[in-house]
TrEMBL record:
<protein>
    <submittedName>
        <fullName>Metabolite traffic protein EboE</fullName>
    </submittedName>
</protein>
Length: 405
């Protein structure tokens, strides 16, 4: 839904629903979207953040009937697609995902083809007046990055897709935007690393010249085309896990001229002071199919772990090594400040929304709490429609005024 006053479009990520194939995703859309719309936007168009896997992208590319069925459904229910999650290429629900979520990474032809297919689909199904965005992976899982040739390879592939977006706009008049999403344990992890990559690889003379060559544009226009089509997703939860100062990080991006094509409202699990008696309760959150990148901070020193269980093991080995604060990449409902005996980084979401409210950062907002299926049962209240609705109402109220004070 369009929040008005320049605040942008807001929805929730359908990554929360079953959707590894187009058949599954279509069923999820037809089941849940009308229910959510009826509660939060009964009298206005409802924006959709659509998960499109590689399998779904292939189906929609090959079948004009399926694309027509999707656009018909959207029209019938007064909905529109403004953003797509094309980060997870393959299965994301039911089976162990972990670091496989980054595969195939941006060094591969598969990632290029998939992203171009999603762009073509978006140019057809999104309405006039919307410049849809594609959320994509942070280039590569950091342990796989073997050196400069690896970085050069995924940089070139990224620019190839940008060139495709330039050609797509020239052919259709539709501007589609590609947004990289920094995440813990990836090549793009911190905001400072992201700014450095754009400065040193993309916005640098060599990157601009490479794009100019790929899309046949004059060198004088290529940098503008880069900024028109390539930016970032700022996931508030991801950057909170790394103990970033969220308003400062947002200023770093805007000062560097890096477009924030999507501002993603996500909250992480936060333990202000980790103690031995909390460890068994935290172990409940380790039984998940997703990575749970975790950061421990003791006396100003930060230690990073790939999974929550590893962090808890390390703490138990040295329980007296100083006061430990912990944040973990487990998406929790953004409307909650507390989760049982723990806290959440909802405060960081509120900080980012306050910045956005004062000076809009992005025209695409999205809530991405995809962990409903792995949230411990005793922490769930209501069904998934209740949960999604409460999140949307919380963010909308924070931005429009009724949730503040």
């Amino acid at each position: 839904m369009d929040l008005g006053n320049g605040l942008g479009h807001l929805s929730y990520s359908t990554l929360v629903h079953a959707g590894d194939t187009w058949e599954d995703m279509r069923a999820s859309l037809e089941t849940y979207l009308p229910q959510v719309k009826a509660r939060v936007a009964p009298d206005q168009p409802f924006g959709v953040s659509l998960r499109i896997s590689a399998s779904s992208a292939a189906t929609l590319t090959e079948s004009s009937d399926e694309r027509a069925r999707l656009t018909g459904f959207l029209t019938e229910h007064d909905m529109y697609v403004y953003t797509v999650n094309a980060f997870p290429y393959g299965p994301f629900k039911g089976d162990r995902v972990m670091e496989r979520v980054y595969e195939p990474d941006w060094t591969t032809e598969e990632r290029v083809t998939y992203t171009n297919q999603v762009a073509d689909i978006l140019a057809e199904i999104s309405p006039p007046g919307i410049s849809p965005s594609i959320q994509t992976a942070p280039l590569a899982f950091m342990p796989k990055v073997s050196g400069d040739p690896y970085v050069a390879r995924f940089t070139t592939n990224l620019l190839r897709v940008v060139a495709h977006l330039v050609s797509l706009e020239a052919a259709t008049g539709r501007r589609v935007k590609l947004a990289l999403e920094p995440e813990p344990a990836c090549f793009l992890e911190t905001t400072e690393q992201t700014v450095a990559f754009f400065r040193e690889r993309l916005h640098a003379p060599a990157g601009v010249a490479e794009l100019a060559s790929l899309c046949g544009a004059p060198l004088s226009e290529a940098e503008g085309l880069m900024r028109r089509h390539l930016g970032v997703v700022f996931d508030i939860g991801h950057q909170s896990v790394g103990f970033e100062d969220i308003p400062h990080s947002l200023r770093l991006l805007t000062d560097a001229g890096i477009p924030i094509f999507k501002l993603q409202e996500a909250a992480a699990l936060w333990v202000p002071e980790l103690t031995a008696d909390l460890v068994p309760q935290l172990r409940v959150f380790t039984d998940t199919i997703y990575l749970s990148q975790t950061t421990l901070r003791r006396d100003g020193a930060v230690t990073k772990f790939l999974n929550l269980g590893e962090a808890l093991d390390a703490f138990q080995q040295e329980p007296g090594a100083g006061v430990a604060e912990m944040r973990t990449h487990f998406h929790v409902p953004v409307f909650l400040e507390e989760l049982g005996p723990f806290r959440t980084t909802r405060f960081a979401v509120q900080q980012a929304l306050a910045v956005h409210r004062a000076t809009p950062l992005s025209d695409h907002l999205e809530i991405e709490t995809y962990t409903w299926d792995v949230l411990p049962e005793h922490l769930k209240t209501g069904d998934i429609t209740d949960y999604v609705t409460r999140e949307l109402e919380f963010v909308r109220d924070e931005l429009t005024g009724s949730g503040r004070g």
